[in-house]
Amino acid sequence: MTGRCLRYIRQNWTETRFYITIFILLIILDLIIVYILIQSRSPPTPSNTSSLISSNNSSLTPSNVTVWVTGDRSGNFTCDGSNDQVEINQAFAYVAENPQFTTVHLKGPNTYLISDTIFIGNNTTLEGDPTAVIKLIDRADWPVFKPLITQINSTEIHGVTIKGFEIDGNHDNNLDKPKGYGYYNMIHFRNSRDLQVHNMYMHDGHGEALKVDNSSNIQFYNNSVHKMGHNGLFAENCQNVESWNNNITVRTDCGLRSRNSNHVKFHDNLIDSFYHWSAGGPGILIEKTTAVVNDVEVYNNTIQNTYGPGIWLIGCCRSYPRDEAKNVYIYHNIFYKTGTNPNIDWVGGIVTSGFYDTLIENNTFDGVYHGAIIQMYPAGTHIYPTYNNSGHIDLSPKGTGYTTTARNNIIANTKQRKKDPDGTGYGVTNYLPETHTIILENNCLYNNYAGNYMNCTSTTDIYVDPVHLNQNIGAGYFSEEFQESINQTMINSILIKRCS
């Protein structure tokens, strides 16, 4: 049998060789095709990727810069609703090790429950869908000053953007920790530069929405911040800070706060609060204790129904040269019914002390409590909260010659404050005439409860219903008759309508 087969092969060798050659060529072709397919695959995904993103879903196709974190196994890292910071931090570690990637994206709708901090590196973006939520777990029991999101390198951080998603501080399920003492700050960076936080929804926290220390080039904008446990933005010892177009409901402390920071702009924000003992202090707080603060602008904001003053401007705690605390410019803001707190006396529209050459111009104060512009500082009152838990600190200015100029403002319908109301409700009040001066020029004052001035006066102010103004004074006026906000460009047309 074997012999016959060999004779057959020898007799038909040419034909047999042809088929063997074809078979070998087919094997080689298969190997080439497999190699091409392997090489044409997308860049390798992280080691714990559960599945590759479907190529027929263009919205989930990774770009050349983005790593996806999901809860439905459609991304590069999959979270399961428990200790989700583990996978998020793995995604950031992968981005750090692979420089072609810059962004970690949180897919929504999904809630990412974290039991520990998320760490971000340089030149990195953390973004998410609006339906993606980072949420602190119940009963987290973290130590003080441990934030939800911070830098991986404790010495410095730069080039970070956080945008687009929601952070839930889960306040009501962590009531063992007090508000305002540094617990569970949502985002905290130190020694940072070129930082942006925008288009975020941040709510129900124990501490800050964003805290930045010793940093520069900080932008905080287009955010919705609701009932934090301290401030919306707190910039301390920073340079070049800008915050705009935020909607902030204050709880415990402030909407926007700057301490010992310079080249600051807070503008085009809507800040309000609610009537409750926890509702906090001023809408905006500008402080100077140690560093130079001589370039601050606050403008085009609407501040209404705050528990404390609309703006608190204070320099204190030591003597300092004039050039270290001056030139704060507050203009084109609307203050409406600010200062509702019944337990403190330092309420009003703008409460200020310890600053030189302050200019308050073209603002509208309507229905504020205590007074529109008040020169005073809190004395003998516990200032809650403070990180060092001291509260009773001396806030008195240590120098003299502090001057505030107020011009072209509308000051109307001022009410008595709720705590110790007797003798309050003037349009403008100076409780510190020995060290502070208010210069009043061309303001419109109308219907203020106690009168227009206390320890100050003016020869150029006018006293008419702001609806009847025919000149550009203030930042707008709310007319009960017309039930709408009247801005400067509308005043003349309203006057014409009334007179026709």
What is this structure's SSE topology?
Blueprint: H1 2-11, H2 13-40, E1 66-70, E2 77-78, H3 85-97, E3 103-106, E4 110-114, E5 118-120, E6 124-128, E7 132-136, E8 149-151, E9 157-163, E10 166-168, E11 187-190, E12 192-198, E13 201-203, E14 210-213, E15 216-221, E16 224-226, E17 231-236, E18 239-244, E19 247-249, E20 254-259, E21 262-267, E22 270-272, E23 284-288, E24 296-299, E25 302-304, E26 311-315, E27 328-331, E28 334-336, E29 350-353, E30 358-361, E31 364-366, E32 373-375, E33 402-407, E34 410-412, E35 426-430, E36 436-441, E37 444-446, E38 451-454, E39 477-479, E40 484-486, H4 488-499
Parallel strand pairs: 1-2, 1-3, 3-6, 4-7, 5-8, 6-9, 7-10, 8-11, 9-12, 10-13, 11-14, 12-15, 13-16, 14-17, 15-18, 16-19, 17-20, 18-21, 19-22, 20-23, 21-24, 22-25, 23-26, 24-27, 25-28, 26-29, 27-30, 28-31, 29-32, 30-33, 31-34, 32-35, 33-36, 34-37, 35-38
Antiparallel strand pairs: 39-40
Description:
The chain is elongated and about 125 Å long. Among the domains are: 2-40; 250-499. By secondary structure, the protein is mainly β. Strand 39 (477-479) and strand 40 (484-486) form a beta hairpin. It contains 4 helices and 40 strands. The strands form 4 sheets. A 14-stranded parallel β-sheet has the order 2-1-3-6-9-12-15-18-21-24-27-30-33-36, with helices on one face. The longest helix is centred in the first third of the chain and has 28 residues, at 13-40. 13% of the residues lie in helices and 34% in strands. Mean pLDDT is 86; it is low at 38-62 and 482-500.
